[in-house]
Amino acid sequence: LATAVPTGDLTGKKLLVTAGGTRERLDPVRFLTNDSSGKMGYAVAAAAQRAGAQVTLITAPTALVAPAGVTVVPIESTQDLATAVTQRFPTVDGLIMAAAVADFQPLTQANQKIKKSPENDEFVLKLKKTPDILQLVAGLKQPHQITVGFAAETQHLLVNGQKKLTKKHLDMLAANDVSRSDIGFNGDDNQVTFLFPDGHTHETPVAPKTTIASLLIDQVSQLFAQK
Ligand code: CTP
Ligand code: CA
């Protein structure tokens, strides 16, 4: 089924795709992360590559094998990801941010393994905001470049999605409703609604992430055609 889906033409386009859940270190052996498997981002990288794009996949640790022919840049933290993306963004035509980026990082990182003490039954962890990568990139964006975000929402999908699209100056946002049990973070299937700055939306069926990725790449190639 996945291969039966037509994929748009991205010949000659250079794309950055991010994937996986970032890790925010507490100490040498511990980190905070999220449930992202990286499957959606890897599927997008593969679909873009099949469509003829030159793809760089910037990836947080996952259990996945990168698609053949794609340049892989491994990262761990949101700060690493921000550096990797902002360094490369000026040289590409587009950025697809499928990574599940941590919103907060520990205020400090311990050099040694944190010890528990007999006096304290509680441990208070202070976090600070991470940089918003799409927001940083919005300030670097040239007219020929497109940026695409993903948003997982548990409520008010379209309203929250449209706000993010505007705030981050995106050309498209793939929004999915993670309150549904049949789709989402760790499974093989997904369902997304593509939102656009002019307010129009396009809903995909529930389908394997590989199919959703091809549909997304079709939309991306249309966006380039409209530039
Ligand atoms: N994103 C980013 N940098 C961050 C956080 C998120 O670039 N520090 C990107 C994600 O990769 C995604 C998009 O922004 O493509 C939307 O992420 P989401 O978590 O839905 O939105 P937030 O702006 O973090 O808002 P909130 O989590 O509060 O809903
Ligand atoms: Ca977030």
From TrEMBL:
Catalyzes two sequential steps in the biosynthesis of coenzyme A. In the first step cysteine is conjugated to 4'-phosphopantothenate to form 4-phosphopantothenoylcysteine. In the second step the latter compound is decarboxylated to form 4'-phosphopantotheine. Catalyzes two steps in the biosynthesis of coenzyme A. In the first step cysteine is conjugated to 4'-phosphopantothenate to form 4-phosphopantothenoylcysteine, in the latter compound is decarboxylated to form 4'-phosphopantotheine. It catalyses: N-[(R)-4-phosphopantothenoyl]-L-cysteine + H(+) = (R)-4'-phosphopantetheine + CO2; (R)-4'-phosphopantothenate + L-cysteine + CTP = N-[(R)-4-phosphopantothenoyl]-L-cysteine + CMP + diphosphate + H(+). Keywords: Decarboxylase, Flavoprotein, FMN, Ligase, Lyase, Magnesium, Metal-binding, Multifunctional enzyme. This is Coenzyme A biosynthesis bifunctional protein CoaBC. In the C-terminal section; belongs to the PPC synthetase family. Binds 1 FMN per subunit. Pathway: Cofactor biosynthesis; coenzyme A biosynthesis; CoA from (R)-pantothenate: step 3/5; Cofactor biosynthesis; coenzyme A biosynthesis; CoA from (R)-pantothenate: step 2/5. Its cofactor is FMN; Mg(2+). The lineage of its organism: Bacteria, Bacillati, Bacillota, Bacilli, Lactobacillales. The keyword Ligase applies. Residues 10-222 form the DNA/pantothenate metabolism flavoprotein C-terminal domain. Residues 15-227 are annotated as: Phosphopantothenate--cysteine ligase. Its EC number is 4.1.1.36, 6.3.2.5.
